[in-house]
Amino acid sequence: MFGEDLEYNSLHLLITDGATYCLKAGRGLKELFPNMMHVACICHALNRGG
């Protein structure tokens, strides 16, 4: 998808829902992309809690 030109510092934000597999994937990607911030969608979080 990104090709070989992807720089590890170029990914800054990952937005997913709060599913367990998404959170786990975010933790794994954080190791490869140390500058990345993983944000879970607030709408999904509110829907689960409501």
List its traits.
alpha+beta, 50 residues
Unreliable spans = none
The main sheet comes to: 2 strands, parallel
Please report the number of helical segments.
2
Strand order of the largest sheet: 1-2
Q: How much of the residues is beta strand, in percent? A: 15-25%
**Overall 3D geometry?**
elongated
Helix percentage range: 40-55%
Q: Can you describe this structure?
A:
With 50 residues, this protein is α+β, with helices and mostly antiparallel strands. It has one domain. The chain has two helices and two strands, in the order βαβα. It has a two-stranded parallel sheet. β1, α1 and β2 form a beta-alpha-beta unit. It is elongated, with a radius of gyration of 13 Å. It starts with 12 loop residues before the first strand and ends with a helix. The mean pLDDT is 81.
Q: What would a concise description of this structure say?
A:
With 50 residues, this protein is α+β, with helices and mostly antiparallel strands. The chain has one domain.
List the helices and strands and how they pair.
Layout (H helix, E strand, L loop, with lengths): L12 E4 L3 H13 L4 E4 L1 H8 L1
Parallel strand pairs: 1-2
Protein name: LOC100902024
Organism: Caligus rogercresseyi
